[in-house]
Design brief:
Helix content: 40-55%
Number of strands: 8
Length: 276
């Protein structure tokens, strides 16, 4: 029978197959040939990882072998398990290719020391979100391997994305996924991080790309009538110290009565809005 990383196809349950797939992302390294692309490629890989864990949490795959569908047939479940196994095979194939490079070539790998601090923090946050959803310790006993050519990365990431497309179509959970992806977007606290996520997710995770775009657009205030006092924007206490950066706001049709008072923009410090 087919085997990837010592796991035989059909020999593990669907929860274990899912966990093994998520584990694999942790073992991928990038060779020095990637240069500055290493940062964005790693971020893109993490977009695929967080997308897979989002779907897994949305269908409760770790606790519900029928993934939210009591009427699911054994054939339908097996199809998803086979698809997850194919993700494992993609990783295993990339590891085999890595082992074919000879010691005469530059086999050095890049690390977080080669990354800008913004990318380090962002990748750490995405990794943290994925691990939190996994809720299980690693089941794979393998060593890290490196991708040395950009074509290898392109093949791997496109293959993973296509396979995730398949399982999302077979066991969809759109409402839960939208809720989860919006929670993810709130974890990226500044404009630069959201822009990086939006770019890295393109073609890999449409939900995350759209959530980042939505977060970047800021608040929209349309046809607002204020007769008394109103605070509709973000506010920061008067004890605030330091810099605050956020998305822009859009105002259209805001009307405040003569005796009204409104805070619709951001407030950083000074006198509290509600103090007369």
């Amino acid at each position: 029978m087919a085997e990837a990383f010592g796991i035989v196809a059909g020999a593990v349950g669907i929860a274990a197959a899912f966990t093994a797939c998520v584990d694999c992302f942790e073992y991928v390294q990038f060779g020095r040939h990637f240069g500055r692309d290493y940062q964005t490629n790693l971020l893109t890989l993490n977009c695929a990882r967080i997308r897979l864990t989002r779907w897994g949490q949305a269908v409760d795959i770790l606790n519900d072998p029928k993934m939210g569908r009591p009427d699911a047939t054994s054939e339908q479940i097996q199809t998803v398990k086979n698809t997850l196994y194919q993700i494992l095979v993609l990783f295993a194939d990339s590891a085999k290719i890595s082992q074919q490079y000879t010691t005469g070539e530059d086999l050095s790998v890049l690390s977080s020391n080669s990354m800008d601090s913004t990318f380090v923090a962002l990748n750490n946050k995405m990794r943290e979100l994925a691990i939190k959803r996994q809720k299980r310790s690693n089941i794979l006993k393998i060593t890290q391997w490196a991708l040395y050519r950009k074509s290898e990365f392109k093949s791997l990431i496109e293959g993973i994305s296509s396979l995730i497309d398949n399982i999302e179509k077979r066991f969809p959970a759109p409402q839960a996924q939208v809720t989860l992806v919006r929670q993810e977007a709130t974890e990226f606290h500044d404009r630069e991080a959201l822009e990086l996520v939006q770019s890295a997710a393109e073609g890999i995770d449409n939900l995350l790309q759209n959530a980042a775009k939505e977060a970047l657009s800021g608040h929209r205030y349309l046809n607002v009538l204020v007769k008394g006092k109103a605070q509709t924007g973000d506010a920061v206490s008067s004890e605030w110290h330091g810099k605050t950066v956020g998305p822009s706001h859009i105002y259209d049709g805001v009307v405040v009565d003569d005796d009204g008072k409104a805070l619709i923009g951001n407030k950083y410090g000074g006198k509290d809005f509600w103090d007369d």
